[in-house]
């Protein structure tokens, strides 16, 4: 008696997808319909050994334009592990609308011996003609997707020209009701307060401080996914954006043009014009200042306040014809933090401390010897005495260097300077001295008491620090 060969089992998975959330809350939705069609198709192929795996791969409210979909990623992992040998979809575009993405998935399927089939398009990638058919269909699917995108953009443009609100985060002063902006009375008062106070004080920073004193925060709202976004204390940037937003004048913006909006304006045209005039005047009053140039301020970009966790920026004032320079916490300066125990630091005093520590390192024979050994191990050719002579020459001419040259040397060695109530913590790059020594060896003029800047920065960094050195600063340095 002739025995029929045993048909090998093919483990099949059904993948379903829907682009939007609409209808997903229904008891029987589009994903269920796609799955039912897939199950029926697999039953029709039982004679070929097809068997449905129990896991479901459903992506609700996910676009087919990319592969960032949880169920799809889980499916691909199961294909790689051999758990799934055949992927069944209702239509090809449920799996992907991108030729590039589909090519990636097809590569995964082929590499791991899996195939793909569509219920409604009646083909399978198991054959050459099926793969050709697939490429043709995908080309049209991508063409339709791009056309759909252009139609959406055209619709958005036409709607905005009619003054319609087309979505996004709800602005302060309004609630979004039935896709339209409706005035939120309490928030509208805050918007008007911001405009009126700026028109009176001519200072955004003062407006921010006033808002903080009133306990006023930015908008609290709930996203489409049901997540509540709590209001935050106002910042200078946030207030600036409100003062320049023509939405409050009753306008809708689209690609550089403004159109009369359907929503009610919150600011009168006279107040708007007055505020914009003040903005233009304040810009004209800000000439370039050499003191504000980071190259003239030794620690710009390196100094942070440990107390309020913010950068410390350079500022200055004049009293009786004398100039006073300071470093102060940017958060305190903007009125965003109170009770900072570091406060304002004299810039010359702090810069002198940092320079003193760097020059102290240069003079330490044991430090120079250790770093010289590292340079030699990496192919250095200069003698220890030659390096020491160059370092001492640099120390002698330090005060004659241009500010930009001093700042480059500091940037070569110093990763950051942290200010605490007890003093300064100076954190150095682990290979900063090694880089400095390399540049001294390369720079032939150093031995004659000259120094010329060159580009470059150290590569290693360390956040660790130990108590090295003396004086008001605490020096953080770690040798490699």
Automatic annotation (TrEMBL):
A Pfam family hit: Recombinase
Disordered: annotated span: 451-480
Classification via PROSITE patterns: RECOMBINASE_DNA_BIND, RECOMBINASES_3
Residue ranges the record marks as coiled coil: none
Annotated ranges, domain Recombinase: 171-285
Domain Resolvase/invertase-type recombinase catalytic, first and last residues per copy: 11-163
GO molecular function, one term: DNA strand exchange activity
Gene3D superfamilies: Putative Large Serine Recombinase, Chain B, Domain 2, Resolvase, N-terminal catalytic domain
SMART domains: Resolvase (SM00857)
Name this polypeptide is given: Recombinase family protein
Species in which this protein is naturally found: Blastochloris viridis (Rhodopseudomonas viridis)
């Amino acid at each position: 008696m002739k025995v029929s060969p045993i048909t090998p089992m093919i483990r099949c998975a059904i993948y379903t997808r829907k682009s939007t959330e609409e209808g997903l809350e229904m008891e029987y939705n589009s994903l269920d319909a796609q799955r039912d069609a897939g199950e029926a198709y697999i039953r029709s192929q039982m004679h070929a050994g097809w068997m449905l795996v129990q896991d479901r791969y459903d992506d609700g409210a996910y676009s087919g334009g990319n592969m960032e979909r949880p169920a799809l990623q889980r499916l691909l992992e199961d294909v790689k592990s051999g758990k799934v040998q055949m992927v069944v979809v209702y239509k090809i575009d449920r799996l992907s609308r991108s030729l590039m993405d589909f090519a990636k998935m097809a590569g995964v399927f082929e590499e791991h011996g899996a195939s793909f089939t569509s219920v409604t398009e009646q083909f399978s990638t198991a054959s050459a003609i099926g793969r050709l058919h697939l490429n043709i269909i995908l080309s049209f699917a991508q063409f339709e997707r791009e056309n759909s995108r252009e139609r959406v953009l055209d619709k958005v443009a036409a709607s905005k020209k009619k003054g319609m609100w087309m979505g996004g985060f709800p602005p302060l002063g309004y609630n979004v009701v039935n896709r339209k902006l409706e005035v939120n009375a309490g928030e509208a008062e805050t918007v008007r307060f911001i405009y009126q106070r700026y028109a009176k004080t001519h200072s955004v920073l003062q407006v921010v401080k006033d808002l903080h004193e009133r306990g006023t925060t930015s908008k609290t709202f709930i996203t489409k996914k049901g997540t509540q976004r709590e209001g935050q204390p106002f910042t200078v940037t946030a207030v600036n954006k409100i003062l320049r937003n023509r939405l409050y004048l009753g306008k809708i913006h689209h690609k550089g043009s403004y159109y009369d909006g359907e929503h009610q304006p919150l600011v009168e045209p006279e107040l708007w014009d007055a505020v914009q005039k003040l903005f233009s005047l304040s810009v004209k009053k800000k000439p370039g200042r050499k003191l504000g140039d980071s190259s003239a301020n030794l620690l710009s970009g390196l100094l942070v306040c440990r107390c309020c966790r913010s950068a410390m920026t350079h500022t200055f004032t004049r009293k009786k014809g004398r100039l006073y320079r300071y470093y102060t916490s940017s958060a305190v300066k903007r009125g965003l933090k109170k009770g900072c125990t570091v406060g304002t630091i004299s810039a010359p005093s702090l810069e002198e401390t940092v320079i003193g520590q760097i020059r102290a390192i240069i003079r330490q024979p044991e430090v120079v010897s250790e770093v010289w050994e590292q340079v030699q191990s990496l192919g250095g050719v200069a003698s220890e005495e030659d390096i020491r002579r160059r370092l001492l020459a640099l120390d002698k001419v330090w005060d004659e260097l241009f500010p930009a040259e001093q700042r480059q040397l500091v940037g070569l060695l110093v990763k950051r300077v942290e200010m605490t109530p007890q003093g300064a913590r100076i954190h150095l790059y682990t290979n900063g001295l090694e880089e400095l020594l390399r540049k001294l060896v390369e720079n032939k003029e150093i031995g004659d008491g000259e120094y010329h800047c060159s580009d470059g920065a150290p590569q290693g960094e360390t956040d660790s620090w130990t108590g090295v050195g003396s004086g008001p600063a605490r020096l953080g340095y770690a040798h490699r």
